[in-house]
Amino acid sequence: MQGCHRHKRHGVLRRYYLDQTDFDLANDLAEVLNLFYEITLQVLISGSPRLANTVVFIDQITEHLSSAISGSTYPPALKNACRLGLKITNKYYSLTDTSPLYRIAIILHPSFRDEYFKLANWEPEWITEAIRLAREMWVSFYKPQPVEPTPSAPSSINRPKTSMLAGLGTAAAARGGILSSDPLDIWLAGGLILDGDEPVNPLKWWSQQKRTGNTHGGLVHMALDVLSCPATSVDVERAFSFGRDYVSSKRHRLSSESISRGMSVAFYSKNGLIKEGVLDRWKTGIQTGKKLNAKPKGKKKVIVLDDE
């Protein structure tokens, strides 16, 4: 390629030199790719990618590319590249419909709930479908069975309501209706929880709620199960890579039990869950136990032959 652009005597032709237009295009490209860089860094952090953030990331990319296409800042060539990127983004966005967990995770996020869909300008029927999926999972797998009330004597006599008391019910309905006792309805009607101006860590928030005994009517179990799902296969791929390095060519005779134990200990140690010196004391204890349990060697028998 360089040979086609190079003059035998004078070198590279001047029209192929880099000029300010090329540097401006490179700067524009860096601006467009900066969001991808930031999201990639978040996704690559072990344990950081959360299921609820998947749709959020895609929405951010969609809005970013759409703004680049509709604006007048970037040249036509870069806009065409953004159109191709938006087409690929929409392709993967449609794949989130194959699993209800993405939408349910957003609903169970303390900082999002169903309000995120409204801010993202989702169609009303899409929002209704997301809530329906969450309710279906809640009712099918997590909603506690109603406790049968024990029969007891009536403590008071039911009296007919006066016109004024009856009117209170109508007034309450006009002011928003009677609140539902269903935990999911109560959750959707609650306010958003933020850490300053930033969303909270949903998994940590729900874990803290469980530790304090606030189960939100049993909704905490569903939230922890859904939000614990990995958003990417980064951690899984790293585990496989570590296993490949752990089982070297000289360790092929290790049993599956030994491999799983070794990888588990390495994982706990890497994450600071094993205090310094614990493994050394454990190994010393194993060696000491082997010495104590070793059978004492018997004395050698000496056979004496009589000389005749």
TrEMBL record:
This is HAT C-terminal dimerisation domain-containing protein. InterPro entries: HATC_C_dom (IPR008906), RNaseH-like_sf (IPR012337), Vacuolar_transposase_reg (IPR052717). GO terms for molecular function: protein dimerization activity. Residues 194-260 form the HAT C-terminal dimerisation domain. It comes from Puccinia striiformis f. sp. tritici PST-78. It comes from the Eukaryota. PANTHER family: DNA REPLICATION-RELATED ELEMENT FACTOR, ISOFORM A, INNER CENTROMERE PROTEIN A-LIKE ISOFORM X1-RELATED. One of its GO terms (cellular component) is nucleus. Coiled coil: none annotated. One of its GO terms (biological process) is regulation of transcription by RNA polymerase II.
